[in-house]
Design the sequence.
């Protein structure tokens, strides 16, 4: 019985090849045989899932790369039409504008798919440097300022008066804050969106808070699921791809940090990014 318990514990720890030695035909032998059959079935299913996951990741990567060349060709033609829209009829000019807009969205989706494939493959790398995080946050906020104005939302930015130095990948942190801002504007119902930065000796925290539709119970984890939408009927102001929060979560993990969501129905939502100030700091 002790040996069976030890085997079961090792199996639960991920050593899927573990089996209980079966001797004789008593109750313990039958128990061992049943356990081994169950373990073999679980091991096979896990391997099938791993193979499916690898195939899915390869498909995403291959399709994303294969679409780059035709998309570049279509983009060149669309840009030529867009530049000549003043010579077209109103209807054709509007069609050229819509074509360019949809190509922008498609290119964003393609970029996100390529980034997801790199993250899944484990080849994404941090380009770390010591910077003032205030500057990174400011750039992210300014990049969505026009969207905020279109949404009728006021952006409140709360930054410390002194430098907040941290060893980060500025591109990835800026992308996280930009994605969080875009999400807040999509669901903020035109209410103010607040972005605040704080730090102590070990970590830096960025909090993005909106006062919109909020989150229902259980949605705080679901929001980071790829392509998940709380309300599929809602129109996105930012033309998001449905991958922004998933990528943001992985970017936070690459830094050894975490990204958390909280909220309640009708009470808005908040997203908190916490990252260490240096590579040698563990949260």
Sequence:
């Amino acid at each position: 019985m002790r040996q069976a318990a030890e085997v079961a514990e090792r199996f639960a720890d991920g050593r899927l090849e573990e089996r209980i030695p079966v001797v004789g035909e008593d109750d313990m032998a039958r128990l061992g045989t049943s356990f081994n059959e169950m373990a073999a079935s679980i091991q096979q299913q896990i391997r099938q899932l791993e193979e499916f996951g690898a195939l899915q990741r390869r498909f995403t990567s291959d399709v994303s790369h294969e679409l780059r060349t035709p998309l570049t060709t279509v983009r060149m033609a669309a840009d030529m039409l867009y530049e000549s829209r003043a010579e077209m009829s109103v209807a054709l000019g509007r069609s050229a504008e819509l074509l360019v807009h949809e190509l922008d969205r498609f290119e964003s989706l393609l970029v996100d798919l390529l980034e997801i494939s790199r993250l899944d493959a484990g080849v994404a790398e941090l380009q770390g440097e010591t910077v003032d995080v205030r500057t990174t946050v400011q750039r992210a906020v300014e990049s969505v300022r026009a969207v905020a104005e279109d949404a009728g939302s006021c952006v409140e930015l709360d930054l410390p008066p002194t430098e907040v130095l941290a060893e980060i990948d500025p591109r990835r942190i800026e992308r996280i804050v930009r994605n969080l801002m875009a999400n807040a504007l999509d669901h903020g119902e035109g209410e103010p969106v607040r972005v605040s930065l704080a730090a102590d000796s070990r970590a830096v925290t960025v909090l993005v808070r909106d006062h919109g539709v909020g989150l229902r119970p259980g949605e705080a984890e679901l929001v980071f699921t790829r392509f998940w939408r709380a309300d599929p009927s809602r129109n996105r102001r930012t033309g998001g791809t449905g991958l922004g929060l998933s990528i943001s979560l992985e970017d936070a993990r690459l830094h050894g940090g975490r990204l958390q969501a909280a909220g309640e129905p009708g009470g808005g939502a908040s997203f908190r990014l916490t990252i260490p100030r240096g590579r040698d700091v563990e949260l």
